Amino acid sequence: MRIGVLSDTHLHSVTPLLRRIQEEYLSDVDAVLHAGDVVSAEVVNFLDHGAFYGVHGNMDPPDVRGLLPPAQIVELEGRRIGLTHGGGSPSGLEERVMQQFPDVDVIVYGHSHRPVNHVRKGILCFNPGTATGFSRNGEHTIGILELGETLKGRIVVVEDS
User: Fold this and answer.
1) Closest CA to 11 of 141, 130, 155
2) Which secondary structure element, helix H or strand E, spans residue 17, and what is its range?
3) Which distant-in-sequence residues (6+ apart) come within 8 Å of 8 by Cβ?
4) What is the CATH number of the domain that holds 27?
5) Which domain, by its residues, includes 61?
6) Taking Cα atoms as reference points, which of 45, 42, 34, 46 lies closest to residue 9?
7) pLDDT > 70 fraction of the chain, expressed in percent and rounded
């Protein structure tokens, strides 16, 4: 199973860049996860085709908060995925989100706009970075999780068009 992972889109509407990300990187995945700071219900509705799981972040307005929980555990292919946005300082962010989900295989989070893909204490910690928001190095990134006999995450740099 392949899962497309987004976070920190920070979009008030569906943009050409988001449409391109959907077409080029997400059209063949089995599910899509969004780790918060979507910012627009229009974007949630655009992504919500088939298997979509999302959470709201600290920048999401009330209408998005009404659509998405603050955190959830998603079970796919026998794997438990903790999905949250995170909050506060980037320093210690991973430790804080790990405390939210003591019994999962993967923790997907956002907030920092910095990609993360490593195993810590037997849990895959995965932050796709920012798909369309502000990035210190100017790169936009998404993630791909592969669930099967093994569990793999991959950070994908969204190429400029």
Assistant:
1) 130
2) helix 16-21
3) 35, 36, 37, 57, 110, 111, 113, 129, 130, 131, 132, 133
4) 3.60.21.10
5) 2-157
6) 34
7) 99
